[in-house]
Amino acid sequence: MRLPDGTRRVLLAEDNEVNREVASARLRRAGHDVSATVDGSAALDLWRTKEFDVAILDIQMPIMDGLSVAAAIRAEEQARGRRRTSLLALTAMTQELDRARCEAAGFDAYLAKPVRGAELLEKLELLAASQEAVLSRVRDDEFAANLESAETEDAEDLKAAARAFLRHADDIIARLCVARDSAESDTLSREAHGAKGMLSLMACTGLARLANQIERQPTETSARARTDELIDGLRKLRETLQSRSDLSPDGQAETQTRNQD
Fold first, then answer.
1. How confident is the model at residue 137 (pLDDT cuts 50, 70, 90)?
2. Cβ distance 111 to 89 under 8 Å?
3. Which of 80, 85, 97, 257 has the most CB atoms less than 10 A away?
4. Same-domain status, 175 and 248
5. Digit-coded pLDDT (tens) for 224-257
6. Is residue 4 one of the residues assigned to a domain?
7. Cα–Cα distance measured from residue 109 to residue 99, given in angstroms and rounded to the nearest whole number
8. Containing domain of residue 256, as a range?
9. Strands 109-112 and 33-37
10. pTM to 2 decimals?
């Protein structure tokens, strides 16, 4: 079912009944589709069965805390190649060490309790807008646009680069995931450089620029989030290219036959 423009699919996990009801009501009044749960384990089960734009997780919950839920979500996204969900932590923690724990678990942002409704909606929109910016890089489909306007020889070069990407996409994505999690800036810069080269060959300039930012600034605090964006973009690009019949082995053979004729 297609949701109205501006509607976000929100997973809310909050064990305090009053806080949960107030936050759910505020989100729904703003037009969002909200699924609310009372603990971390239930939240993870729900996430596994439904697609969400943003998951809002209380850090201190029974059965499974928010940090554990976030870490599990990020691990499953990586293992299953699933679209990335933006994660927002609700926490009473304010120390730098606690913030670092949230970031290490995979949260994109956090809000300190007590949470104001306007503040919650503002943070939600920022996270959703960031996610949409990633997807738009691929939705614009620079590859298809450039392929359509290219001369014959250039078009074949683009197709050859795309086929090479499809052969190596899993490995490229896996190495970026390892580099992101290793916190080794040299490794991250090197892997981003490799991805940039492949993307440039396919004329995917939006994702190539993102890879270039990571390569040049691997130690910036935003490097991890940018790497997550790049990984999401590469997964979407892989999906888009896999759907093209002219990039399949059969499509390649057909092109070669036409050229010979």
1. low
2. yes
3. 85
4. yes
5. 878 988 998 898 889 889 888 888 765 454 444 4
6. no
7. 9
8. 140-260
9. unpaired
10. 0.56
